[in-house]
Amino acid sequence: MRLKRLILASSAAFFAMSSTALASRPTEGGYWLQEAATPVMQELTKLHNFVSWIILGITLFVMVLMAYIMFRFSAKRNPVPSKTTHHVGLEVAWTILPIIILLIMVVPSMRLLYLQDALPETEMTIKVTGNTWNWEYAYPEFENVESFISNPLEKEDADAAGVPYLLATDAPLVVPVETKVKVLVTSSNNLHSFAMPAFGVKMDAVPGRINETWFEVLPGKEGTYYGQCSEICGIKHYKMPIEIKVVSKAEFKRWVANDGAFTTSVAALGNNNMSGGVTAAQK
Amino acid sequence: MVAIPHGDTDGHEGDHGAYGDDKPGFFARWFYSTNHKDIGTLYLIFGIISGLIGGYLSFKMRMELATPGIDVFNSEHEYLVFVSMHGLIMIFFMVMPALIGGFGNWFVPIMIGAPDMAFPRMNNLSFWLLPTALICLLISFFVPGSASGNGFGGGWVMYPPLSTSGSPGPAFDFIIIGLLAAGFSSIFGAINFITTILNMRAPGMTMHKMPLFAWGVLVTAFLLLLALPVLAASLFMLFTDRIDGGTGFFDPAMGGDPEMFQHLFWFFGHPEVYIMILPAFGIVSHVISTFSKKPIFGYLGMAYAMVAIGVVGFVVWAHHMYTVGMDVDLKAYFLAATLVIAVPTGVKIFSWLATMWGGSITFSIPMQWALAFIFLFVVGGVTGVMLANAGVDTALHDTYYVVAHFHYVLSMGAVFGIFCGFYYWFGKMSGYLYNKWIAAVHFWLFFIGVNVIFFPQHFLGLNSMPRRYIAYPEEFELWNQVSSAGALITLAGVAAFFVMLIEAFVRKRPAGENYWGEGATTLEWTLPSPPPFHIFNTLPRIDDNDGH
């Protein structure tokens, strides 16, 4: 445990150099989307807000209309009911109008979908493997950086380090800012889902398949980002968070030159820790 | 408009007019029952019992989630078992039996002027398969599921590998057997409804004069008939995959693919959503029409909107799977197809409003449930439009936003439809009138309660809280607490429901033939309350001028 804290402290010191200590995570009592850190998430937020206005409008329209009808045509105010049962114009109108609204919505929706899913030329690749229950990160393009396991911190460790429990890990995924990163996602056992809300990324980890997605963190958005496994994967489903550290390009270079510095030692620790975790689970 | 022949019977003594009322003894009546009304009653009682079980599961989960840590459940596994079983029990053993088996059996034959269902004995089999199935599911709680404990904790969607190599114990085998039994029950029921509706309508009761509830059940029956065999097949594939050295349909190590199961499951699962809501659409239509004292507006549009929803419902399944790594063009198709469903749904909403327009509305208890249904279904429907956008769904998939969405259409859509029908027909089925003040207390507690539970869950989802988590970061605590408080209000509402039931059966205020008055025009209101054991010994004749 002490070793782990030491490593945490050293990695914190290492990344203290990235002066903007931005951290994106769920907000206290939050009721809207998390702040966007990638162009995809910016577009996603825009579309979400646009559609929100439309659906809010529709709901209010129905509510107000209903309230008016309930008032105006109550048995007290309208004792004699009409016998109207058809109105072709009206029926055509309430078929056509929703179609028009949907057409207005579908254009930006398709644009977002293709922006998100059609992979651009990416500058680097990371490979994410979901294990039961932790994440393994690999940098296939940097041979000196060994793949490592990212374990969740126990509550006392998280509290000691001043990082959020159920979000923080002992070894974050490290990526450079302003770089198009391709993410390959797979799983060694159960289904999992690699999710990073601030990036607009969520991709299932499926055994026997390699899914790909991508992100590019906007300039000035260096910092720590938190996500959580988003596909039911067994008893520790709630406890396999995803932590991503976004650093400047120069820092990332230094980190790679350092053989992924802290992470290699953490990976060894992570392995020990994992076997410990499994026995705990089996109990 | 409807001519019911009275008098001259050549049957038994003591007949009510043209009706036979010779009930068999208790055991034969309730255990060998072939009478559609008795079987309907059995289904309703069964639905209430299952609802209590499923409700208990959800209540305990809500109490757990009131705080970020783990403090109500003994283990994480137990929580996941509750999550999974809540879904399965509520869907297969509460909503479906109540709406289709209960009200469908009771009122489809009466509404179309048929003496009973086409296959009364198969009807009996349909019902008795269900308690058998439920017992299998309940057994699964107490037998080993995985190394982590008893019961199956893989979610109601039962995705492999969590349901194959992830849950090697017998718990999941019991669920497979139970769901197969429930599936066969529904398939038999569907065959029965289709045959009854297509062949046993009274003279003059053309398809285009048939009440909308019968239309809803007819479309539902077709969906069941087409969707459930797919579920049965995929469950059976899971079953053989689970055998050591068995098949490997969903096992990548043997050349299979876990995503295949998801496609099969949702090919059943999406029509299942409409299976649960279409009969409720029918009930709400009758209630709106009755209490507005107006015939339903745009009857044909309403009937064919349900048909359209049923048809389109079969080609949109993969919108439950936007994040599995599908090809982008495929996603684009499912996005567009899903949005299309909003159009017939809009037709239904606006037609209900137009039915009320110009009407003479009384706000009796069933009407309150119907109005609340429309409002809540709109809220659940529009968040469905949001989720249909594959791009936005990337952020919302598997979060509490989805939980909020489908509880708005089910926990508030389907369940409000059930209560709407229950209060509409309670007097007809039991022969007694309920106390409307207790019923009003039930309605308001329930209406406020479910909104307090589920509306804040939109916020949790937007703030990215994933589903099926027993513990969560502290940032999510506020809205979870509000949500759990709502569960307490809803619980009080459920208590009021039972007080209402007990009071009505103790006081025994007799209900007349047509206690809703001139607005209620379907055939059940021409019969006494409760209707005699055998009905329509001479078929009613529906006049030509009874147009919609």
Structure description:
- The complex is a heterodimer of chains A (283) and B (548).
- Chain A is 41% helix and 20% strand.
- With 283 residues, chain A is an alpha/beta fold.
- In chain A, the strands form three sheets. Chain A has a five-stranded mixed beta sheet with strand order 4-3-2-6-9. Chain A has a four-stranded mixed beta sheet with strand order 1-10-11-5.
- In chain A, a hairpin with a 4-residue loop joins strand 7 (192-196) and strand 8 (201-205).
- In chain A, helix 1 (2-15) packs antiparallel against helix 6 and helix 2 packs antiparallel against helix 3.
- Chain A is elongated.
- The model of chain A is unreliable at 1-6, 12-21 and 263-283 (pLDDT under 50).
- Chain B has a two-stranded antiparallel sheet with strand order 1-6. A two-stranded antiparallel sheet of chain B has the order 2-3. Chain B has a two-stranded antiparallel ribbon with strand order 4-5.
- By secondary structure, chain B is mainly alpha-helical.
- Chain B has helices spanning 26-31, 36-64, 76-111, 120-141, 170-199, 212-242, 258-292, 299-312, 328-340, 342-356, 365-388, 390-396, 400-430, 436-462, 477-507, and strands at residues 2-3, 144-146, 149-150, 432-433, 509-510, 541-542.
- Chain B contains 15 helices and six strands.
- At the A-B interface, helix 2, helix 3 and strand 8 of A face helix 3, helix 7, helix 9, helix 10 and helix 11 of B.
Quick check: average pLDDT of chain B? 93
Q: Give me the number of helical elements of chain B.
A: 15
Number of helices of chain A: 6
Beta-strand percent range of chain B: under 5%
Largest sheet of chain A: 5 strands, mixed
Amount of helix of chain B: 55-70%
N-to-C SSE string of chain B, H for helix and E for strand: EHHHHEEHHHHHHHHHEHHEE
> Share of helix among residues of chain A?
40-55%
